[in-house]
Amino acid sequence: LVTGVQTCALPICVVQDNKERHYIPKPMIPEEAADILEMEALDFLVFRNANTEEINVLYPLKNGEYSLIEP
To answer: Is 11 exposed, middle or buried (0-12, 13-18, 19+ CB in 10 A)?
Structure first.
């Protein structure tokens, strides 16, 4: 369990305890992650898949589609 000051903003929560920072991926579905990628113009997004509870990585392809990396 991570305790301390917590700041949540899409797509992660940052919990700061003393001088350590812990990044906790927020649960979301891949479609929501794609929306965030598009809105924020990110190269990739690490998130916790709300459907599977696994950590996933979503990134845009050159053809406008997205690729999802799952464990």
So the answer is: buried
Q: What is the pLDDT of residues 7-32, one digit of tens each?
A: 445 555 545 556 555 566 778 999 99
* Exposure string over 25-62, b if 16+ CB within 10 A, otherwise e: bbebebebbbebbeeeeeeebebbbeeeeeebebebee
Gap between the terminal Cα atoms of the chain = 23
**Whether the Cβ atoms of residue 59 and residue 38 lie closer than 8 Å to each other:** no
Contact (Cβ atoms closer than 8 angstroms) between residue 25 and residue 45 = no
